[in-house]
Amino acid sequence: MILIQGTVLPTGINTLIRMHWAKRKKKQQEIIEDITQNNPKALTTPFGGPVDILYTRKSTRYMDWDNAAGSFKLIGDALVTLGIIIDDNPNVVINFQVKQQKVKKRNEQGYEVLICKASSVPKMRI
To answer: 34 is in which domain, residue-wise?
Structure first.
């Protein structure tokens, strides 16, 4: 199990889908640097198989749930790029839960990602 904490407020999916590709690339790099600087241990303990992820977005305001879940996109891609998880597809990320935490000040905004080996709960096939 590993807890990754970040100080960058993840962009919601509604903003991401309208973002220019160059700006999105800069935002992606910002997330990668945030994970690297704040969580050096995470880089040395990669998960080689299926995982469960609990993602908590900390913000001064709540989002719709679909937008909050979509804000994980750049973080998930960064976890794969850094080799912390092998992929972010449903065969690797077995369970994905999203929480929102309201904070009082903007400097408290950010995110937490708790990654654990996948539980023994059978995966649903569609």
So the answer is: 2-117
Whether the full predicted model's pTM is greater than 0.90, yes or no, is no
CA atoms within 13 A on the CB side of 77: 12
Q: What are phi and psi of 34, to 5 degrees?
A: -60, -45
Which CATH number does the domain housing residue 67 bear?
Answer: 3.30.1330.70
Total structural domains in the chain?
A: 1
Mean pLDDT of all residues belonging to the chain: 92
Cα 5 from Cα 12, distance rounded (Å): 18
Q: Is the dihedral of CA 65, 69, 70, 74 positive or negative?
A: positive
* Residue 90 counted as domain residue: yes
